[in-house]
Amino acid sequence: MTDDEDTPTLVTCALPYANGKAHLGHLRTYIPGDTYTRALRKQGREVTFVSGSDMHGTPIVVNAEEQGREPEDLATEYHEYFEETFPRIDVEFDSYGNTHDDTNFRRTQEIVRALEDNGYVYEDEMMVAYDPEADRTLPDRYVKGTCPYCGEEGARGDECDECGRHLEPGDIEDPVSKITGAPAEYVEQTHRFFALSELRDFLSDFVDDLEGTSNARNQPKGWIEEGLQDWCITRDLDWGVPYPDDDGDTDLVLYVWVDAPIEYIASTEDWAERTGDGDEWERYWRDGSSEIVHVIGGDIIQHHCVFWPAMLHVAGYSTPDAVMASGLVKINDSAFSTSRGRAVWLDEDYLDEGFPADLIRYYIVSYTGFENDLNFSWSLFQERVNNELVDTFGNFVYRSALLAHDSFDGAPDGELEDEVSDEIGTAVDRFEDGVEAYNVKEVAEAGMALAGFGNEYIQRNEPWNLLDEDEDRAGDVLYNCLAVAKASALLLEPVMPSAAERVWAMLDEGDVHAATVDEAFEAVDGGLNEPEHLFEQVEDEKIETLEERLQERIGDEEEDEENGRDEEDGREDEDEKGGEEKAEEDGGAGGDEEAEEDEKREGEKAEEDETEETGGDEIPFDRFDELDIRVAQVESAEAVEDSDSLLLLNVDVGDGTRQVVAGLKGLHAPDELVGERVIVVTNLETATIFGYDSEAMLLAAGDDADLLTTAGVSEPGTRVK
Motif 'HIGH' region in this chain: where (predicted)? Predict the structure, then answer.
């Protein structure tokens, strides 16, 4: 990120498919994207936040055909749904368009013509899947089969669900039609191609300079090193942006991943038109005087870090400066999957139950690092809300405001103590460091840690007892408490805007949304409005009801599968371009068994687990195959404070970075581990060790922790089989 606070920033969120209602997978990117945007504004930066609905592509066509509707009718319905739904979770775009509007059509065709004019588009024959029974070709999600890269049967049209690789038409092996279920054939068809292979040097430099999360850099590096294939940019469909063929010799439409990201530009154009300066969009996309940050799901890194910048570069547009790519979403430690019922739906499961937006916003942003997998369970949700929001932040603010309101009829006079001033300064620094590092979790923790200090401060000083003994001292304490309450609400506004607004209303401090971090040091002065509780406890009965609903849904879907229903129906797990994480059957993450919180027990446990000879009960191969064992690269390593044996590592596992707690201290120097390729198990349960979540298990041999690695140069994320 640029250090120049005068540089305007454009933040974009990946486009949801206008194909179904919102769920937890969508929120995984839109809430952090909104949080990041608000945090930038807290620094006084000029920010524009845009997105839009993706109304094209085969999933929408397939869904519309199943419902007997026109694609435009279906897509328009869901575009309007998302447009109305985002404000309900306090996600506020400056512009929210859609790919089927005139601005996007015009801009898309202009860019494709530029690609042609610059010599990067050519015509060629290619093999495409064809269903002889239906007598039609099978673009993208109309075909399924075996992935040519990983060999798994998770290939669906233009993407493999197992390894996440983009697939070109004709790549899928053993293709099957999703229309009739019959084996498909391959036939030749004329298409247009973008000469991506000629842009290797540009893309290599682009990725090296890219900021954001490490997965957005590391994955493209591997693909570029493997060698880039030219990219087919047309499809044999009736729905989409027509290929700009001035000669009229083709009726193909552009591949959805051509026009979808161009909506970022189109939406910026619409924003500029509405704000009164139609050319204002060009400072973001033409003259390089600003910065562009994309917030996406980890399943679409290839599209945003390879295809998209290549198109922009050739067409003469500005390329992204940073890409923030999320990890996967899991439900109760299992892969998120709408088709299998393992999903939490925004309307029926959350908003209709009366939960305010702040709760889910806090959970999503604070649970784990953005590029790590996010695990959701209703019990964890209840625990975070009750312990952190109700008992820490909410309780501290309410007690401070109520005592001051009732005892002093407003904010008492006082002086900011050095201890309090230092804590506020530390929180502000932590907040700003988080923004600069594209780390929204750190943004949330900065404000919550300050509230935690406030809770400890008021407990230690007991102003309710001081009111009878030393009223002046009680006033000083409450003066400092209100200062902390104000500052913590200000720093938490990007995460929980509605709660922050209520706090500032109680303190009569004006507009928290327009305030910047500088105001964190300004104490509360004047009257107070009637205090109110910020949050309500989430009761056990409600959690039990929601968990039962989830389990019933999973059971119903599993029963449907047993009865032969085809779960891969065009709508499966592809409701959103980048917000919903793919339902990869990787399962949960786990912690290093050598590192237990009680280190004495850790040594005893290791002795119990270790045997002097091989053997024991044999297990079937399919049980071994359930383990997701991967090559990983150590990104950072540091000692765990106050621990005799633990190191805290961040490792790149190909689709994101995992935090690992491992008993390597004294056996491996942290700085020597950085850059090492190691072997990890990624689908064990997350373990909390010495207060840290361990999201994978690092494999090592013997008492000296000889790290397992590879003899070759396998990239992070490569599966061990």
Answer: 16-26
